[in-house]
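[Automated response] Your request has been received and processed.

Submitted sequence:
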Amino acid sequence: MSGKEMNERGLGWVDIVRLGLVQAALGSIIVLTTSTLNRVMVVELGLAASIPGALVGLHYGVQISRPLWGHRSDSGRGRTRWILAGMAALGIGGIAASATPMVFAVGFLPGILAAILAYAVIGLGVGACGTSLLALMASRTAPQRRAAAATIVWMMMIAGIIVTAIVTGSLLDPYTPARLVAITAAVSGIAFTVSLLAIAGIERAGPQVAERQRPPSSLRASLSQVWSSPADRLFTIFVFVSMLAYSAQDLILEPFGGLLFAMTPGETTKLSGVQHMGVFAGMLLVGVAGGLFARRKGSVLRAFTIAGCAASACALALLATASIAAPHWPLAANIALLGFANGAFAVAAIGTMMELAGEGGGGREGIRMGVWGAAQAIAFGLGGFSGTVALDAARFVTRSESLAFSTVFLAEAALFVLAALIATRTGPARRPAMPSFSGIAAETAE
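Generated structure:
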């Protein structure tokens, strides 16, 4: 194969899988800090749901710095160092956060101060690592492989979350604060080691798929260029609304299982694993089905995005019913359905994101990923916090746990309907084919 052909292909499938291992490591730490720990604070420590909601909101709020990380990685060939530095910060912050229940036992003030510091470090780590990783993928993956690469990497992240949730859920019972710290430290150490081995040499080995140009010298100029594009701007709005809908349930699902279905910490952690198994299945279905519809007219990416948002709204409406029918409801099946719908819309939206980031070229993949990452982070922070605040407010007004959860789930369903409407107008100009796993097998065989 000639050098020119290698350059057009960019990263190979093995390299893409290696990047997926980094994303899986990232998700394995995040799931402990945003799912398991918030349940411990609400149920075991008896804190208001808005407290862990505010802390998770803080870690997403810190990620508004994502455009800065993206701009810095665009300015040179140093994406790998930001990926590893971010992963190290994430691990340190995750271990510190897992120790906060012990500090809360000493007093509320020292506990909340320690938690604020820990979650701020988590946000910095996720922002630096995640943005640089996505920018590396967009800049070094050939156009025909971008959607498939996004599918593979995100499926591996979900697989990492599933394995972490199931394994740690089994190890966490009987729950003790010390056990939670030990498990988080072990997961963080493994995650960093895997990332270090997986990312080694990729940035040197994978050629740029297009001529790299020097981005605008200032962050403000880079942001202005991205926001001036109608396609980039509309997609940013879609990312915000859809992630707002998605994240509003993120911090209340485990308390939901604990309060209305009498589940233990280990059982609700496993429930999170069931949700992510659904996400994995949804992503897999879209990836396989994409090969069947690749040559049809119209935007298949857009169709799957719209359908996934609509199905997510239906699953949340069913959860609202579950709130009333608890504990006599197939909760695990309902959660799996929600995950499946989320996975379908997410992988289609991620494929669109990769296409849009790579379309413009000009060495601005990082700043584009940073803008969309910031929109996602703001939405996640606002959604997670507003979901917990809405739950506390509804509990106060209705004096009913079931009605309170039902109200929040219905509000999230309405947001997903709005996201589906916006998605009808988003998408890359080229209308790319969806990832085909049969095509991947054929290319690998070459």
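Summary generated for your ticket: Confidence is low (pLDDT under 50) at residues 1-8, 429-446. Residues 365-398 form the longest helix (34 residues).
If you did not submit this request, please reply to this message.
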